[in-house]
Amino acid sequence: MAESIAQAQQPASFDYELYEGDPDHLRTVVATPNQATPWIDPATLKLKHRIGRGPFGDVWLATHHQSSDEYDRYHEVAVKMLHPVKEDHMQKFLNKFEEIFLKSRQLQGVCWLHGISIISGKICIAVKFYEGSVGDQIARLKGGKLLLPDVLRYGIGLAIGIQELHSLGVLVLNIKPTNFLIDDHDQAVIGDFGIPYLLMGIPLPDSNFAIRLGTPNYMAPEQWEPEVRGPITFETDTWGFGCSIVEMLTGIQPWFGKSAEEIYQSVVMKQEKPLIPAGLPPAVENVISGCFEYDLRNRPLMADILHAFESSQNAVYSDGEWIGLESRKVPEKLSGKCFSTWFLSKDLLQVGDTVRSRKAPDSCKPQTMVVPEGTVVGLEKDTDRDGFVLVRVPRVHDPLRINVSTLERVTTGLAVGDWVRLMEETNKHSSIGIIHSIHRDGNTAVGFLGLETLWEGHSSKLQIAEPYFVGNFVRLKANLFTPRFEWPRKNGGTWATGRISQIHPNGCLVVRFPGRFVFGNEPNSFLADPADVETVTFDTYPGLVGKYQHIEDYHWAARPLTIAFSLFTAIKFGIFVGKSMGAGKKKRGHTQIRRDDHAQDAQTAANSSWLPPPVANILFGEGPTATAR
Ligand SMILES: Nc1ncnc2c1ncn2[C@@H]1O[C@H](COP(=O)(O)OP(=O)(O)OP(=O)(O)O)[C@@H](O)[C@H]1O
């Protein structure tokens, strides 16, 4: 057994030396026969035949010959032969692999790693040979569906495995039934321990193997362009897990039959989600539905999934209802408009925490804060998702009893969701980002545009930045010549002003330009680095001309309508003057003029009803207010 061999060996560090031009001749510098190093001498690996082919390479059935003075053994192994990696990046991959190799052997839900080698210039990862995969099982079964108890049983083992990898800081990113291997006890283990994650940042020499960070059918929205729509986080794996469970329950791969480009359009652009089959235990349905939240921060973590699956494992469906469910209340799908219960349960309050009323992330309207600042002095019950806490607020005699979901923890003046600026200069990524988590010791994770994963560092390196909201009007800063993304110009050549329609978890702004008239499929939605733009409001525009220009930004029809209206008014005025002069000549009374005046008012009011509201407002009275912050 490979396990017994490994247990007998002592962990030790090792090193590689790559011979230029011939990667097969890779040798360990610090290695003794009894050391548990991942390195496998390629001469001891004999590839027999290929058993699988996936986007990251081929899988071969092979034998691994191990011998010493005491033993001489052959193991049947599966060898994942990756697509060729540039030679100067090979060492990088091997180092990353070494970091997780020994730790992975302590994990119960992850496949057993034999080691790593290089054959014909390709990285080969040797893994214990298993009976097959859940994917194979789905392919073999008539109808392809697995029974719910099996799905829950496999799901629990897999969630444990993914959770274990997360605890090592590894993202799997390639969660799918063909990567769920089944062991001798019919338990599923994770067969891909994060190969896309290890390959991240490593270019491939052959452009035919355009590796994405995963397999399209199972990829979360942020996984397609992590630097732009990211970051990728533990919750990215949650999406892949949800897709896999849906496939196990239905026998149908999510987005089956669609090309990668079509899946991108569905998942990323149209924000579509895989369909969840009906009739599941409520906790399972709820958690799987949470897996498909577009904003990764609203998705559950593996611990939430594990809890939902375990609590439903003994449930039986009888007479139209589920019986045998654990009594704990199924968390509501969404608490309020903006935050899911999964989001809220990621940060539980403790006595002594400084808190304030939670702000809605997408609202630019000023809000009344029940608690501008307070201290948690008591927990009414375990501060789970729907608990209450007692908060002492300055100048209020008795502590207030407040629902935890309406509060956010403030540490060193910062809270999750705050916009922050990195104080030190960087050109690797945007300087402005959004806080994803902040620990009580000040360690903070921030999503920055330009980074594939979360930035991690101390809050002392950050300062609070002006927030952006959906609905804000923005334009490029006047002193900026080369924005990070393409930005449209107005007819006169100046930068156009647009309106934020979406904000990605890394602060990347999606900006639409309602003031631009576009033809056919011409894009009218652009991305923006929050550090490149500034907010524009009606009030801050100088002068009447400036304010009028802002109205034009609301809708491209503002200009033709204004011209039409001006013409109309001019004609009316001309007629009015003509009539007045005629009336003067005929010595008409004032009554008639007043009647014309009223008629014009009525006409004007009628016109206002068919103008877009902002145009109507500015032309006939109130200025637009939508951008007031
Ligand atoms: N360790 C293993 N033991 C037994 N069979 C395996 C093992 N690893 C992979 N396989 C088999 O190979 C098949 C394909 O695996 P492979 O990982 O190449 O495909 P994939 O998961 O679609 O691709 P990728 O992981 O590159 O995205 C699996 O469904 C399984 O049948």
From TrEMBL:
Residues 45-310 form the Protein kinase domain. Pathway: Protein modification; protein ubiquitination. Keywords: Membrane, Metal-binding, Repeat, Transferase, Transmembrane, Transmembrane helix, Ubl conjugation pathway, Zinc, Zinc-finger. Residues 586-617 are annotated as: Disordered. Pfam families: PK_Tyr_Ser-Thr (PF07714), SH3_15 (PF18346). Residues 601-610 have a biased composition (Polar residues). Coiled coil: none annotated. The chain crosses the membrane at residues 556-578. It comes from the Eukaryota. One of its GO terms (molecular function) is zinc ion binding. This is Protein kinase domain-containing protein. The lineage of its organism: Eukaryota, Viridiplantae, Streptophyta, Embryophyta, Tracheophyta.
